[in-house]
Every structure is written in C-alpha cells, then in structure tokens.
C-alpha cells in the first residue's frame, strides 16, 4: 500500500511541475513577443533617423567635393536610390522621399530653390529642407 501511495505522490509532483513548466513557457513566450515588437519598432525609428543624418552628411560632402575638386557634382533621388558622386545608396523602405536632382557647380553652389521633404512614417513627422540659391546651404524644419 505504501508503494502505491509513493507512486501516486510522485506522479502528482511530476504533473505539477509539468503545469508549472507550461505556465512559465507561456509567460516567457508572451514577454518575448511583446519585447520583439518594441525592438522592431525601435530599429525602424533608428533606421529613419540615421537616414536623415546620412542624407545631410552626403549633401554637405557632395557640395564640398564639388568646391574642392572644381567639378560639377550631382546629388539626387530617383527610383528609391540616393545618388551622389557616382554612388548609389538604397533608401530604407520606411522612408518616403520624392524624386529630385540638384547640381553643384565648380564653386560648390547650387542654382535651385527646391524644397525637399522626407516623410518618416514610424515617427509620424516630416523633415523639410529649403535649399538656398547660390550658397548651397539649406534650412531644415521638422514638423
């Protein structure tokens, strides 16, 4: 009779640990899903901000190269690629920017008053650049 009770008690303990394991696994899976979605959103936000910083940096570098090398340089966006100094950079899928083209002359100046808008959907903001004619500088506004 004692052996039967021991087997019965052992079986109940195993079943209880199995339920515990399933509960812990469920909680961990749930937390992992929540944190992975937050992490994914954070990665998209960082990717958008990095593109804006990279855009500004490439604009300035292209302008400086035109002035230093005394050559005409093109800077623009077409078909989801940012083109500069005979290079192409893929624009992230999250970022929306309309096609444009700017040409810097031998002094690093442009002859455009274009307004460039970059839409960042994850951050729900628009970054606008108003180009200044001649100087090649721009005025940045974020809304």
From TrEMBL:
Keywords: Competence, Membrane, Transmembrane, Transmembrane helix. GO terms for cellular component: cell surface. Its main location: other. It is found in: Cell surface. The keyword Zinc does not apply. The keyword Heme does not apply. This is Type II secretion system protein.
